[in-house]
Amino acid sequence: MTATIIDGNQLAEQKRSEIKKRVDELRQRGIEPGLTVVLVGNDPASTSYVRGKEKACKAVGIRSEVLRLPKETSEEELLNHVRRCNEDPRVDGILVQLPLPDHINEQRVINSINPDKDVDGFHPISVGNLVIGNPGFLPCTPYGIMEMFRAYDISLSGRHAVVIGRSNIVGKPISLLMQREHATVTMCHSRTKHLKAFTKQADIVVAAVGRPRFVTADFVSPGSVVIDVGINRVESGKLVGDVDFEEVKEIASYITPVPKGVGPMTIAMLLHNTVWSAERKAGIATGSGNGVLT
Ligand SMILES: Nc1nc(=O)c2c([nH]1)NC[C@@H]1CN(c3ccc(C(=O)N[C@@H](CCC(=O)O)C(=O)O)cc3)C=[N+]21
Protein backbone atom coordinates (compact mmCIF):
# COMPACT_ATOMS: atom_id res chain seq x y z
CA MET A 1 0.00 0.00 0.00
CA THR A 2 1.24 3.45 -0.77
CA ALA A 3 0.27 6.41 1.38
CA THR A 4 -2.05 9.28 0.55
CA ILE A 5 0.11 12.36 0.23
CA ILE A 6 -1.27 15.25 2.24
CA ASP A 7 -1.18 18.22 -0.12
CA GLY A 8 -0.07 21.21 1.95
CA ASN A 9 -0.01 23.52 -1.02
CA GLN A 10 -3.60 22.79 -1.98
CA LEU A 11 -4.86 23.07 1.60
CA ALA A 12 -2.98 26.31 2.10
CA GLU A 13 -4.49 27.66 -1.11
CA GLN A 14 -7.96 26.77 0.19
CA LYS A 15 -7.21 28.48 3.51
CA ARG A 16 -5.93 31.56 1.73
CA SER A 17 -9.15 31.91 -0.23
CA GLU A 18 -11.21 31.71 3.01
CA ILE A 19 -8.89 34.24 4.63
CA LYS A 20 -9.15 36.56 1.65
CA LYS A 21 -12.93 36.71 2.10
CA ARG A 22 -12.48 37.73 5.72
CA VAL A 23 -9.95 40.36 4.73
CA ASP A 24 -12.44 41.72 2.17
CA GLU A 25 -15.08 41.97 4.90
CA LEU A 26 -12.69 43.87 7.13
CA ARG A 27 -11.76 46.17 4.26
CA GLN A 28 -15.45 46.94 3.68
CA ARG A 29 -15.51 48.23 7.24
CA GLY A 30 -12.49 50.37 6.50
CA ILE A 31 -10.09 48.05 8.33
CA GLU A 32 -6.84 46.90 6.78
CA PRO A 33 -5.22 44.06 8.70
CA GLY A 34 -1.47 44.48 9.08
CA LEU A 35 1.47 42.20 9.85
CA THR A 36 4.95 43.37 10.79
CA VAL A 37 7.79 40.92 10.40
CA VAL A 38 11.06 41.77 12.12
CA LEU A 39 14.14 40.24 10.53
CA VAL A 40 17.53 40.68 12.19
CA GLY A 41 20.55 39.86 10.02
CA ASN A 42 20.63 38.35 6.57
CA ASP A 43 20.62 34.59 7.01
CA PRO A 44 19.59 33.29 3.56
CA ALA A 45 17.01 30.78 4.87
CA SER A 46 15.34 33.40 7.09
CA THR A 47 15.37 35.94 4.27
CA SER A 48 13.67 33.44 1.99
CA TYR A 49 10.97 32.50 4.56
CA VAL A 50 10.25 36.15 5.19
CA ARG A 51 9.82 36.71 1.47
CA GLY A 52 7.31 33.84 1.45
CA LYS A 53 5.35 35.48 4.25
CA GLU A 54 5.27 38.85 2.42
CA LYS A 55 4.03 37.20 -0.74
CA ALA A 56 1.29 35.33 1.10
CA CYS A 57 0.10 38.52 2.84
CA LYS A 58 -0.07 40.29 -0.47
CA ALA A 59 -2.11 37.48 -2.02
CA VAL A 60 -4.89 37.85 0.59
CA GLY A 61 -4.79 41.63 1.02
CA ILE A 62 -3.02 41.86 4.37
CA ARG A 63 -0.75 44.89 4.65
CA SER A 64 2.72 43.59 5.42
CA GLU A 65 5.81 45.40 6.46
CA VAL A 66 9.26 43.92 7.01
CA LEU A 67 11.65 45.62 9.39
CA ARG A 68 15.08 44.56 8.20
CA LEU A 69 17.66 45.23 10.90
CA PRO A 70 21.42 44.67 10.69
CA LYS A 71 22.81 41.63 12.52
CA GLU A 72 24.67 43.89 14.98
CA THR A 73 21.37 45.37 16.25
CA SER A 74 21.45 45.38 20.05
CA GLU A 75 18.77 43.72 22.13
CA GLU A 76 17.72 47.13 23.43
CA GLU A 77 17.26 48.50 19.91
CA LEU A 78 15.24 45.44 18.91
CA LEU A 79 13.06 45.82 22.02
CA ASN A 80 12.45 49.45 21.04
CA HIS A 81 11.26 48.38 17.59
CA VAL A 82 8.92 45.82 19.13
CA ARG A 83 7.54 48.44 21.52
CA ARG A 84 6.82 50.76 18.62
CA CYS A 85 4.89 47.98 16.85
CA ASN A 86 3.08 47.12 20.09
CA GLU A 87 1.66 50.64 20.15
CA ASP A 88 1.05 51.10 16.42
CA PRO A 89 -2.70 50.71 15.78
CA ARG A 90 -2.08 49.70 12.16
CA VAL A 91 -0.20 46.60 13.31
CA ASP A 92 -2.37 43.58 14.16
CA GLY A 93 0.39 41.01 14.20
CA ILE A 94 4.08 41.06 15.10
CA LEU A 95 6.42 38.27 14.08
CA VAL A 96 10.06 38.38 15.12
CA GLN A 97 11.81 35.90 12.83
CA LEU A 98 13.79 33.27 14.74
CA PRO A 99 16.56 32.42 15.29
CA LEU A 100 17.98 35.75 16.50
CA PRO A 101 21.73 36.45 16.65
CA ASP A 102 23.51 34.97 19.69
CA HIS A 103 23.92 38.28 21.52
CA ILE A 104 20.13 38.69 21.77
CA ASN A 105 18.03 36.85 24.35
CA GLU A 106 15.17 35.42 22.30
CA GLN A 107 12.81 34.84 25.19
CA ARG A 108 13.22 38.41 26.40
CA VAL A 109 12.23 39.68 22.95
CA ILE A 110 9.24 37.31 22.71
CA ASN A 111 8.11 38.38 26.18
CA SER A 112 8.11 42.02 25.04
CA ILE A 113 5.56 41.44 22.25
CA ASN A 114 2.04 42.68 22.99
CA PRO A 115 0.15 39.39 23.62
CA ASP A 116 -2.80 40.78 21.61
CA LYS A 117 -0.50 40.86 18.56
CA ASP A 118 1.33 37.60 19.19
CA VAL A 119 0.43 35.92 15.87
CA ASP A 120 3.29 33.41 16.29
CA GLY A 121 1.71 32.20 19.54
CA PHE A 122 5.11 32.18 21.25
CA HIS A 123 4.37 34.62 24.10
CA PRO A 124 3.99 33.03 27.57
CA ILE A 125 0.40 34.32 27.68
CA SER A 126 -0.42 32.46 24.45
CA VAL A 127 1.39 29.36 25.68
CA GLY A 128 -0.54 29.48 28.95
CA ASN A 129 -3.85 29.88 27.13
CA LEU A 130 -3.03 26.86 24.99
CA VAL A 131 -2.17 24.74 28.03
CA ILE A 132 -5.41 25.66 29.76
CA GLY A 133 -7.60 25.55 26.64
CA ASN A 134 -8.48 29.25 26.68
CA PRO A 135 -9.05 31.17 23.44
CA GLY A 136 -5.85 32.63 22.05
CA PHE A 137 -3.24 32.50 19.33
CA LEU A 138 -1.99 29.05 18.41
CA PRO A 139 1.55 28.61 17.08
CA CYS A 140 1.28 28.38 13.29
CA THR A 141 3.04 25.09 12.55
CA PRO A 142 1.12 22.96 15.08
CA TYR A 143 -2.10 24.74 14.11
CA GLY A 144 -1.43 23.95 10.45
CA ILE A 145 -0.86 20.28 11.28
CA MET A 146 -4.18 20.11 13.14
CA GLU A 147 -5.89 21.62 10.09
CA MET A 148 -4.33 18.90 7.95
CA PHE A 149 -5.78 16.20 10.23
CA ARG A 150 -9.15 17.88 9.98
CA ALA A 151 -9.10 18.27 6.20
CA TYR A 152 -8.20 14.62 5.67
CA ASP A 153 -10.60 13.32 8.34
CA ILE A 154 -7.79 11.80 10.34
CA SER A 155 -9.22 11.10 13.75
CA LEU A 156 -6.99 11.45 16.78
CA SER A 157 -9.33 10.18 19.45
CA GLY A 158 -7.89 7.25 21.36
CA ARG A 159 -4.96 6.96 19.00
CA HIS A 160 -1.33 6.87 20.02
CA ALA A 161 0.65 9.84 18.73
CA VAL A 162 4.41 9.92 19.07
CA VAL A 163 6.13 13.29 18.76
CA ILE A 164 9.87 13.36 18.10
CA GLY A 165 11.23 16.69 19.33
CA ARG A 166 10.28 18.83 22.32
CA SER A 167 10.77 22.39 21.07
CA ASN A 168 8.63 25.28 22.25
CA ILE A 169 7.51 26.02 18.71
CA VAL A 170 6.56 22.53 17.53
CA GLY A 171 7.02 19.53 19.84
CA LYS A 172 5.41 20.92 22.99
CA PRO A 173 2.42 22.66 21.39
CA ILE A 174 1.56 19.87 18.91
CA SER A 175 1.58 17.43 21.83
CA LEU A 176 -0.93 19.57 23.71
CA LEU A 177 -3.16 20.04 20.67
CA MET A 178 -3.29 16.34 19.88
CA GLN A 179 -4.11 15.61 23.52
CA ARG A 180 -6.90 18.13 23.28
CA GLU A 181 -8.28 15.99 20.46
CA HIS A 182 -8.10 12.96 22.75
CA ALA A 183 -4.94 11.31 21.45
CA THR A 184 -2.58 9.54 23.82
CA VAL A 185 0.68 11.39 23.27
CA THR A 186 4.24 10.27 23.87
CA MET A 187 6.96 12.90 23.60
CA CYS A 188 10.34 11.61 22.49
CA HIS A 189 13.54 13.62 22.10
CA SER A 190 17.31 13.42 21.66
CA ARG A 191 17.82 11.55 24.94
CA THR A 192 15.03 9.03 24.41
CA LYS A 193 16.27 5.46 24.58
CA HIS A 194 14.83 2.91 22.17
CA LEU A 195 13.12 5.62 20.11
CA LYS A 196 12.14 3.11 17.45
CA ALA A 197 10.26 1.04 20.02
CA PHE A 198 7.98 4.05 20.56
CA THR A 199 7.50 5.10 16.95
CA LYS A 200 6.89 1.49 15.90
CA GLN A 201 3.76 1.33 18.00
CA ALA A 202 2.46 4.77 17.05
CA ASP A 203 -0.67 5.43 15.01
CA ILE A 204 0.63 8.92 14.30
CA VAL A 205 4.26 10.08 14.15
CA VAL A 206 5.17 13.77 14.15
CA ALA A 207 8.83 14.29 13.28
CA ALA A 208 10.32 17.61 14.38
CA VAL A 209 13.96 16.73 14.93
CA GLY A 210 15.87 18.78 12.39
CA ARG A 211 17.86 15.88 10.94
CA PRO A 212 17.52 15.02 7.25
CA ARG A 213 15.73 11.70 6.55
CA PHE A 214 16.03 10.66 10.21
CA VAL A 215 12.79 8.68 10.24
CA THR A 216 13.29 5.66 7.99
CA ALA A 217 10.94 2.81 7.05
CA ASP A 218 12.00 0.70 10.03
CA PHE A 219 10.65 3.40 12.42
CA VAL A 220 7.03 3.20 11.38
CA SER A 221 4.35 0.55 11.35
CA PRO A 222 2.02 -0.11 8.42
CA GLY A 223 -0.93 2.24 8.13
CA SER A 224 0.41 4.96 10.40
CA VAL A 225 0.11 8.69 9.72
CA VAL A 226 3.45 10.46 9.32
CA ILE A 227 3.78 14.23 9.65
CA ASP A 228 7.12 15.71 8.64
CA VAL A 229 7.95 19.08 10.17
CA GLY A 230 11.61 19.09 9.09
CA ILE A 231 13.07 21.48 6.56
CA ASN A 232 16.69 20.58 5.94
CA ARG A 233 18.69 21.90 3.05
CA VAL A 234 21.13 19.16 1.99
CA GLU A 235 24.39 19.55 0.03
CA SER A 236 22.72 19.27 -3.35
CA GLY A 237 20.66 22.33 -2.39
CA LYS A 238 17.60 20.09 -2.21
CA LEU A 239 15.05 20.56 0.57
CA VAL A 240 14.39 17.37 2.54
CA GLY A 241 12.35 16.62 5.62
CA ASP A 242 13.08 14.66 8.80
CA VAL A 243 11.41 11.67 7.15
CA ASP A 244 12.78 9.48 4.40
CA PHE A 245 9.78 10.17 2.20
CA GLU A 246 10.47 7.62 -0.55
CA GLU A 247 10.79 4.76 1.93
CA VAL A 248 8.11 5.73 4.42
CA LYS A 249 5.42 6.52 1.86
CA GLU A 250 5.30 2.81 0.99
CA ILE A 251 4.30 1.93 4.55
CA ALA A 252 2.25 4.84 5.93
CA SER A 253 -1.44 5.51 5.26
CA TYR A 254 -0.92 9.29 5.11
CA ILE A 255 2.28 11.28 4.79
CA THR A 256 3.20 14.95 4.39
CA PRO A 257 5.85 15.79 1.78
CA VAL A 258 8.68 18.31 2.08
CA PRO A 259 8.42 20.76 0.43
CA LYS A 260 4.68 21.43 -0.06
CA GLY A 261 3.57 19.87 3.19
CA VAL A 262 3.60 21.51 6.61
CA GLY A 263 5.55 24.62 5.45
CA PRO A 264 2.81 26.24 3.36
CA MET A 265 0.25 25.52 6.11
CA THR A 266 2.46 27.33 8.63
CA ILE A 267 2.22 30.46 6.52
CA ALA A 268 -1.52 30.05 5.96
CA MET A 269 -2.13 29.87 9.72
CA LEU A 270 0.00 32.99 10.23
CA LEU A 271 -2.39 34.81 7.90
CA HIS A 272 -5.34 33.35 9.80
CA ASN A 273 -3.93 34.53 13.14
CA THR A 274 -3.32 38.02 11.75
CA VAL A 275 -6.86 38.31 10.43
CA TRP A 276 -8.30 36.91 13.65
CA SER A 277 -6.33 39.54 15.56
CA ALA A 278 -7.82 42.31 13.41
CA GLU A 279 -11.32 40.84 13.72
CA ARG A 280 -11.01 40.58 17.48
CA LYS A 281 -9.90 44.18 17.71
CA ALA A 282 -12.91 45.18 15.60
CA GLY A 283 -15.19 43.10 17.83
CA ILE A 284 -16.30 40.86 14.96
CA ALA A 285 -14.22 37.74 15.59
CA THR A 286 -16.13 34.50 15.41
CA GLY A 287 -14.73 31.46 17.18
CA SER A 288 -11.89 31.48 19.59
CA GLY A 289 -9.13 31.79 17.01
CA ASN A 290 -7.60 28.56 18.09
CA GLY A 291 -9.99 25.90 16.97
CA VAL A 292 -11.48 25.39 20.44
CA LEU A 293 -15.13 24.85 19.71
CA THR A 294 -16.52 24.20 23.16
N1 LIG B 1 9.07 33.75 14.52
C1 LIG B 1 9.11 32.78 13.63
N2 LIG B 1 7.98 32.24 13.15
C2 LIG B 1 8.00 31.24 12.23
O1 LIG B 1 6.93 30.73 11.81
C3 LIG B 1 9.28 30.79 11.76
C4 LIG B 1 10.43 31.38 12.27
N3 LIG B 1 10.31 32.37 13.21
N4 LIG B 1 11.65 30.98 11.87
C5 LIG B 1 11.82 29.98 10.83
C6 LIG B 1 10.66 29.03 10.78
C7 LIG B 1 10.56 28.27 9.48
N5 LIG B 1 9.28 28.62 8.91
C8 LIG B 1 8.83 28.20 7.66
C9 LIG B 1 7.61 28.52 7.16
C10 LIG B 1 7.21 28.12 5.89
C11 LIG B 1 8.04 27.38 5.10
C12 LIG B 1 7.61 26.99 3.73
O2 LIG B 1 6.62 27.44 3.23
N6 LIG B 1 8.37 26.12 3.03
C13 LIG B 1 8.08 25.70 1.67
C14 LIG B 1 9.32 25.71 0.82
C15 LIG B 1 10.12 26.95 0.89
C16 LIG B 1 11.43 26.83 0.17
O3 LIG B 1 11.46 26.28 -0.96
O4 LIG B 1 12.45 27.28 0.72
C17 LIG B 1 7.56 24.27 1.68
O5 LIG B 1 7.81 23.56 2.67
O6 LIG B 1 6.93 23.88 0.71
C18 LIG B 1 9.27 27.02 5.59
C19 LIG B 1 9.65 27.42 6.86
C20 LIG B 1 8.67 29.52 9.73
N7 LIG B 1 9.41 29.78 10.81
Automatic annotation (TrEMBL):
GO molecular function: methenyltetrahydrofolate cyclohydrolase activity; methylenetetrahydrofolate dehydrogenase (NADP+) activity
Top-rank lineage group of the source organism: Bacteria
Tetrahydrofolate dehydrogenase/cyclohydrolase catalytic domain: residues covered: 6-120
Reaction catalysis annotation: (6R)-5,10-methylene-5,6,7,8-tetrahydrofolate + NADP(+) = (6R)-5,10-methenyltetrahydrofolate + NADPH; (6R)-5,10-methenyltetrahydrofolate + H2O = (6R)-10-formyltetrahydrofolate + H(+)
Gene Ontology biological process terms in this record: L-histidine biosynthetic process; methionine biosynthetic process; purine nucleotide biosynthetic process; tetrahydrofolate interconversion
EC number assigned by the record: 1.5.1.5, 3.5.4.9
Domain Tetrahydrofolate dehydrogenase/cyclohydrolase NAD(P)-binding: 139-281
GO cellular component: cytosol
Residues the entry annotates as binding NADP(+): 165-167, 231
Pathway: One-carbon metabolism; tetrahydrofolate interconversion
Keyword annotations of the record: Amino-acid biosynthesis, Histidine biosynthesis, Hydrolase, Methionine biosynthesis, Multifunctional enzyme, NADP, One-carbon metabolism, Oxidoreductase, Purine biosynthesis
Subunit-structure text: Homodimer.
PANTHER family to which the protein is assigned, alphabetical: C-1-TETRAHYDROFOLATE SYNTHASE, CYTOPLASMIC, C-1-TETRAHYDROFOLATE SYNTHASE, CYTOPLASMIC-RELATED
Function in brief: Catalyzes the oxidation of 5,10-methylenetetrahydrofolate to 5,10-methenyltetrahydrofolate and then the hydrolysis of 5,10-methenyltetrahydrofolate to 10-formyltetrahydrofolate.
Listed NCBIfam families: PRK10792.1, PRK14186.1, PRK14189.1
Membership in a protein family: Belongs to the tetrahydrofolate dehydrogenase/cyclohydrolase family.
Protein name as it appears in the record: Bifunctional protein FolD
Biological source species: Novibacillus thermophilus
